[in-house]
Amino acid sequence: MAFAWKASGLTYNRYLAIAARVVRRSLKEQARLQAERRGEMDLRFAKWENGKQGENRSLASANASAVAGAESAGGGGAQ
Please, which residues have CB within 8 angstroms of residue 21's CB and are 6 or more apart in sequence? Predict the structure, then answer.
């Protein structure tokens, strides 16, 4: 027998994210705010060249600039 999350087409990680969000929203105000802050993430990365670490950059800002660059170059998606 398959799990309900698997039968509905969700990955396990997506199922956990939804369950965590539901639990956070059900908490009282003060506890909810603390739980939401713990759930926020800021992913950072650095490019390594010749054995040296480059500048640490935020993944969100790097993705946004890459999308903006692709759109300005004419690769803006479906027509």
Answer: 39
